[in-house]
Design a protein that fits this description.
Oligomer: heterodimer
Distance between the termini of chain A: 85 Å
Number of strands of chain A: 5
Shape of chain B: globular
Structural class of chain A: alpha/beta
Shape of chain A: elongated
Largest interface: A-B, 33 and 38 residues
Distance between the termini of chain B: 35 Å
Chain lengths: ~375, ~260
């Protein structure tokens, strides 16, 4: 079909009064132009209108809709429109459009909601979300109790898999980032210490900040980004493809298979990752101390036992299981919140990462307050 | 090539690694006909469809759409061809983040320059044409039933008034009433818009009702091509077991009773 395209649709008045010729292609592409031409056409005030469609070259559903609308409008103005010479297939199309449009009443656009309604709905949504998270936490605890009573029910394979993916696979990136954080702290602090000639105190600066605060936090943030998001995406996709429902019908509790192994895996992995981050953070600080402050590795390591107590180390590592539980719970919870399709998976994954990092930092703050009360 | 041939497939060969599912497929589709593609599972019906709509490149052989060979088209030419075809995927493939109305407006917005209000009216028209109630427009795909999803997908496929419509399993998963309505719709569109329809289906009732010709895929090629009556009398063992089973016979009786 390489014939030239028909010219755009048009309407011409004449030759007699009340007679109009429809020409060219009445197709969707020319709708706007046609609509304007129709508006500007000199329609008579009363009487019969003859539309001669013999020269109409193409008509598609859009054009038929416009034509149908025109006939309706002319009738509405009290005129008697008549369509002549329309080709057989065009008549059938016009008929189809009339019939289908007749069946459906145009939908009213959904009413726009006011600011107050929006505020109320958002507040409700958030409250509901908080409650649902709490309910999910409760459900997990129940499932946890069930599993601890019957350790045989623990899915060992899934547990090992989540240890592998959340723990072992995160080692390289965690090592690199902790090392760099150690370098940055030593560098920033070292510049100040050097002016006072207190070079050796770099040991306190690096080890206390790393062991107590930064290593657990870094590990948690990386795990939230890497693993928490993966939990949400996995469970969410399974939700979309009805795999979760399939599990239920087979008699496998999704909690047992999907949530608890992840929770156990992360609670075991994150403290270990924290120790690993401790080591690389201190190594980074040590490297910087040697290069910039002339504190050799030997001097640095000699001073570590004096500089930092075992309590600081344990405090850091002790926070990790709590962070891990937050990340695993939020990740799984957001996965179960997925409903509908692909966009929902994306949305919940984003939420999962943001919420878990947010909650981890809140928990860290709570720990700080707690420790200062306890005086450790 | 005859002027009224819309699709021409010649010597098509498709291999995935070592296994070949097509070897020497020849097929031509005439303007204004409804062609059904049938065959057992795994005979490459959907792959053939994907190759014709330029989603998958065949290993060897040529496919001509409207006389143009698809293998050596540049992007612009391929886009021009795509504008002339509408595709309904098996599971609808509606964009889940958009409402039904917005889904139908996507091709309109991409390809035509129309004011938004007019575009909405045109999209609403397509939704009505596909037999959906107007209140389906503002709904999201996840809020629709299976039958309504299919109709919404048809509405999107029809958005640009294509000359060529591809349907992958249009009636799969539909209740008989919706399946009948969809058949009816296909026939009406064919008659009034002069549409050429290619559909992959297992639904024998719908093949009897709407298809002008049926291509039977098997043994890596088209082993039967003709009207349902011709095919159902075929002696070829694969074809006869397909059509002569209890379902095939019931569908045939049904079709004869309806005349």
């Amino acid at each position: 079909m390489n014939s030239a395209l028909p010219p755009p649709g048009d309407i011409e008045s004449g030759p007699d009064a009340g007679t109009f010729r429809l020409t060219g292609a009445w197709t969707t592409a020319h709708l706007e132009r046609l609509r304007l031409r129709l508006e500007r056409s000199p329609w008579p005030a009363a009487g019969a209108v003859r539309l001669q469609a013999g020269a109409l070259e193409a008509l598609d559903t859009g054009g038929a809709w416009l034509l149908q609308g025109l006939l309706g409008e002319l009738r509405g103005r009290g005129l008697q429109p008549r369509l002549d010479g329309l080709r057989g297939e065009f008549t059938a199309l016009l008929e189809l459009v009339r019939e289908r449009l007749g069946e459906s009443v145009p939908a009213a656009p959904p009413p726009r909601e006011g600011t107050l309604a929006w505020l109320g709905r958002e507040a409700w949504r958030r409250a509901e979300e908080g409650l649902a998270l709490l309910a999910f936490f409760g459900e997990t605890v129940v499932a946890l109790g069930r599993n601890l009573l019957h350790p045989g029910r623990i899915r060992r394979h899934a547990l090992l898999e989540s240890l592998q993916s959340a723990g072992v696979n995160a080692l390289p990136i965690l090592a690199l980032l902790s090392f760099l954080i150690g370098v940055v702290i030593a560098y920033q602090g070292g510049v100040q210490l050097k002016t006072y000639g207190a070079n050796i105190f770099i040991v306190e600066l690096v080890t206390i900040t790393m062991l107590r605060e930064l290593a657990p936090l870094m590990a948690a943030i990386i795990v939230a980004g890497r693993t928490g998001s993966a939990f949400t995406a996995q469970i969410g996709t399974m939700q979309v493809t009805e795999e979760i429902d399939a599990l239920r019908t087979i008699g496998i509790a999704p909690m047992d298979l999907l949530v608890l192994p992840k929770l156990f895996g992360l609670v075991l992995a994150l403290p270990l990752l924290t120790v690993f981050a401790d080591a690389f953070g201190v190594l980074g600080g040590m490297t910087m101390a040697t290069l910039m402050l002339d504190v050799s590795f030997g001097d640095f390591l000699d001073r570590v036992p004096q500089a930092v107590s075992a309590t600081s180390f344990l405090i850091g590592v002790g926070k990790a299981p709590v962070f891990a539980a937050i990340i695993a719970l939020v990740g799984c919870y957001q996965g179960f919140r997925v409903s509908g399709g692909a966009d929902s998976v994306g949305r919940q994954t984003t939420k999962s990462v943001v919420q878990s990092i947010f909650l981890v930092i809140i928990a860290d703050a709570v720990f700080s307050i707690l420790y200062s009360w306890l005086g450790i | 090539m005859a002027a009224d041939t819309v699709i021409e497939v010649e010597g098509l060969r498709t291999c995935f690694g070592e296994t070949c599912i097509h070897d020497g497929v020849n097929l031509s589709v005439r303007r204004g006909e409804v062609l059904g593609i049938v065959g057992g599972s795994g005979t490459g019906k959907s792959v053939l469809l994907r190759e014709i709509i330029m989603l998958h490149e065949p290993t060897a052989g040529t496919i001509r759409l409207f006389g143009e060979e698809t293998g050596d088209l540049d992007e612009a030419a391929a886009d021009r061809l795509r504008r002339r075809m509408g595709v309904m995927f098996q599971h609808g493939a509606l964009f889940s983040s958009l409402t039904v109305l917005e889904n139908v407006m996507v091709p309109l917005r991409e390809q035509l320059r129309l004011p938004p209000a007019l575009m909405e009216s045109v999209a609403a028209l397509k939704i009505a044409l596909a037999g959906l109630p107007a209140d389906a427009g503002p709904k999201f795909p996840r809020q629709l039933s299976g039958g309504m999803l299919k109709r919404a997908a048809v509405a999107r496929a029809l958005a640009l008034d294509p000359e060529l419509l591809f349907l992958d399993e249009p009636s799969a998963g539909l209740d008989p009433v919706s399946a009948n309505a969809l058949d009816e719709l296909i026939l009406q569109l064919r008659d009034s818009l002069g549409l050429t329809v290619v559909m992959v289906t297992h639904d024998l009732d719908s093949l009897w009702r709407v298809s002008d010709r049926v291509a039977f895929l098997g043994e890596k090629k088209v082993i039967g091509l003709g009207s349902m009556e011709t095919l159902s009398r075929s002696e070829h063992p694969l074809i006869s077991t397909y059509f002569q089973g209890p379902r095939g016979r019931a569908a045939k009786e049904h079709a004869w009773a309806g005349r």
